[in-house]
Amino acid sequence: MATLLHIDSSVFPTEASASRAVTEAFRKHWEEQHPQGTVVYRDLAAEPVAHITADAHLAGFVPESAHTPGQAAAFAERVKLIEELEQADAILIGAPMYNYTIPSTLKAWLDNVILIGRTAGENPSAKGTPVTVVASRGGSYAPGTPREGYEYVQNYLEAILADGLGLDLEFIVPELTMASQNPAMADLIPLAEASRDRAFEAAATRARKLAERVAA
User: Taking the complete model, does pTM exceed 0.90, yes or no?
Assistant: First the structure.
């Protein structure tokens, strides 16, 4: 049966997090199509993975037979994360924008799963796996907006996930999520609500399409 790797990185609970709300909706629709399937879930805010260390990094360039005890232990933790990535039929990532980029916990996960010669390089081991990223943000950084140049979420993740790991990437972008909380953004509330509705619709559509793709 199909396996979904679901990763959340928002520091807020679902009721206060746009990214978690949309990934939850995606997962619900996915599970409706695959009730007997498997969901591997990682909440990086609740249980962050270790930031990359010298041992964990260097172990990726040394034969396992030559690993020091420290390298062996650190690399074993990386391999767990890498195998979850490789064994997934689809990947779902909640990536809210914090200070113009992704949460540090998500960056730590990426640093662990990027392994040249295995997941990255000439023949990435998870190449072609569909990955859906819910890239929520409090304002708007879309092309043509005043803060377009401060968008370091989608451009970064496209470089890593699509170009680096060879994944089949699609973004869902709920924006203006702070409009209802920031009086200065009150005029943007209708746009924020429309963006939210589009995000939930996109999550449902994407989940169903991927379910059909995996089944085929």
Answer: yes
